[in-house]
Amino acid sequence: MRKKITALLMIALLTVLTLGGCKSGSSGASTGSGGKILCLCTDLSDTFLGTLFGAMKTHASSLGATVDIVETGGSVEEQANQVAAAKAAGYTAIIMRLADASTALQMNVASNDIPIIYVNSQPSDEHLTANKYIFAGSSEEQAGQYQAEYVLSKLGNPKSLNVIIFEGEPGHAGTIGRTKAVKETLKASGCTANYVFVDYANWSADTAAYKLGIFMKTGQSVDAIFCNNDNMAIGAIEGMKKYGLDYTKIPVCGVDATTDGCASIEAGEMAFTVLQDADGQALAAVQAAVALGNGGTIEGIEYAESDGKYIYVPFTPVTASNVSQYK
Amino acid sequence: MSDNTQDKKKKVKKISTKLITYIVPLVTVTVLVLVAVASSMAKSRMTEMANETLESSISNQADNIESWLETNLKFFNTVKHTIEAEKPDNTQLQAMLDSFYGYNSSSPEGLYIGCSDGSFFKASESDFTASNVTDAEWYKQGITRVDMAYGTAYRNSENELVVSATGIIDDGDSDIKVIGADVTLNEISIIVNSGVKMSNASSFLVDKTDNTILAHRDFSLISSEITENSSDELISGAAKAINSGDYKTKEIGNYVVAFSEISGTDWILVSYIPTSVILKTVSQMGNLLMIIGVIAVAITVLAILYVVKRVIAPLAHITDSITAMSEGDFTITVDSSSNDEIGVMGNKVTEFVASMRNMLTSISQESEKLKDESDNSDRVSKIMFDASESQAEAMKQLNETVDQLATAVNDIAQNATTLATVVADTRDNSDKANESMKQTVEISQKGRQDMEKVSAAMSGIENANNELVESINKVGTASDEITNIVGMIGEIAEETNLLSLNASIEAARAGEAGKGFAVVATQIAKLAQTSAESAQNIGNLIGEVHKLIENAVGQANASAESIRENGELINVAVDTFDQIYNNIQESNQLIEAMIEDVQKVDDVATNVAAISEEQAASADEILATSENMVDMANNITKSSQDVADNSHELAGTSQTLTSYVQKFKI
Questions:
Q1: What ipTM does this complex have?
Q2: pTM for the complete prediction?
């Protein structure tokens, strides 16, 4: 009786081990060629996107992968069609800049189970799956955090601040994340921020300048101006020039370190911007595409988050002291 | 089985007890493990599900709040855009506000406008009051934006907690006009409190800019501030999470708490549910599983008992039978009605008993017989012992006799061998004599041949001597002729001398002219004189030779005579030799005949020696054999002694066997 029980236990154990062995065996990642990557971009004429996708090509060839870059324009349908056809065309992974960040789920479904690395426009967290549908880019919140930290340090960690924030378009991830991070960083530093003007300027310099005019009518004072991008910061500077505000005392911060933005900093107008590291993001995206395309994980790629959904390539702060490197 | 006759008494357990002691713990452990695994899996899965439900509920609520706020805001913005587009004067503005009044139930007081110069517009029917426009909270909030948005909650002049959607009217006027509309938090509270999609879950809404509670089931808590120092674990935990911006669902105290940001505002919706509620079902399930487990164990035990009873019952009877059997009782009967292995076992035991019974009966009979036979053999072996003893004695005597015989034969063999040796020597010697004889024959033969050769030589000598006489006679004849020739030479020499004298006379007449011729005639006269003298000498010599030849012929004749005499003597010697040869030949034949006889004697002697040696060997063998026989006889004696002992013992054993077999009940 006891022998039989022992035998049964041994059989059970062996079965478990065998099944376990099979499982671990089948998950062994095949390596070798870097794979074939489909890159979908909305607009290659955009400075940043052009740089980003151009850098992907360079990094892909050094990693032994081939990339095909397709410009889809703003059409969600075109993007969905491209994604749906990718697997049949032999692609092992897709890198894409969503035309509409809210359509990520649609793309996930259309991908026929090949991994997608979203870049530049971040989909909502619930539509990302670890090591399958991931985002490689920069954390919007980090941009806002860097802006706030810069201003606090520049103004000597004041107890209170009159703050203007020019936001991008409503509902945009950049708008929400950057604005939220500015507010949270200020609050966390113990500074009482008095938001004298917080409004959308839709990424537009003119709108920002115009809305600054309206702000001027309210007769309030301002200590710092945070803009969700460089364009609006340049608009704000224009407005300040017009209304006689001293932008050397009132720091104006942008995001993106565009050519105009850098020129403005070099001219001593804008105080601060952050550079999205297009090269770093492209490298991260391609590394992820190669790893996931070969059935691996993003673990081990620099800046990969432990949840397997994000690779956050850090922003680079740009001020007058280092702007010359980024022109 | 319980009364075991063995020395160490084993504790006897029933098979059913054994089975139960093995199986019940096993089943219990299995059931416990199953219950534990199921409970733990159910717990984690249900916690997960509860979290998901809570998150889904809070997300749904947040969506409701957002869409409610959004709808209202859209309405307000529409009004604002209309005003901005129309750029109405004060009367027109009043009319517009009036016309929108009552349009939106969420904002019962309608829209109102405050200007930087202190002027204030509102719908005529509205109860809204504003004493100091530019100091009003809503105005202060409004001047921070153009697009209308919700600000933080504040208490209005009626001491009601309100949230205002405000914004600057962008009509190009240099004066600042702020348009506002209030939504009461009561309505949001209703959404918050009634929108929970999970039973036993609750929610509250917090403004993260100042951490005040905007909506709560407990109205008294509305507008109170949540702090990390709060005595309420839930409140302090939520405050901590909000302050650190960590909006992941987590367990705080005895609650599972979910957070959701309301987009377009700084508000955080917090939903929570007591952990006990979630785990209640889990513990219920655990209990149920436990009960089922206990019942399963009980049923298993009963089932085992029943099965064991059914299956093993016949074993008890068989056990009793075997116990009786072990005590020697083969009169038992075994139940073999069961149709399983136990039935077969019973059947086989019955067969075994029957065959044992038969066997014991025959053993008993056989042992009786055996006893008789062993007694018999005991007796016989005793007789045999005696017989063998006398045989041994006889054998010993025989042995001695054979020994003597062997010695005698050995002597004979020795003698025969000596004889053979002597004969062999004789044969060798006669062989040698034969050899010498043969040589003698050869030599005598050779001597005769030599004598014949001498005889022949003697004949040759005689012939030669005769020829010599003849030759000498011829020489005599020749010397006579020489004498004649010499006489003729003398006559010639005298004539020559006369001639030379005539010549010398003539030469002297011839005077001087013949002087030379006179010299030659003188010389010829001298020569003729000399020749006459030589011829005279030769005639003398030949006479002497003639005399000598006559002597030689006489001597040769004498030797011829002696030679003939010798030849006759030699012929006599040859005849003698022949005589000797014949004699020797005869003696040789005699010797050969003798050698043949000696050879025969030798063969016979050798045979005799060999035979006598074989005899000696045989005698030795016979001796050895007889010694063996003596030993064997001794052994037989001993063996027959053993046989006698054994058969005695056997008799005893068969007696014992009989007594044992008689113990069995057959």
A1: 0.72
A2: 0.56
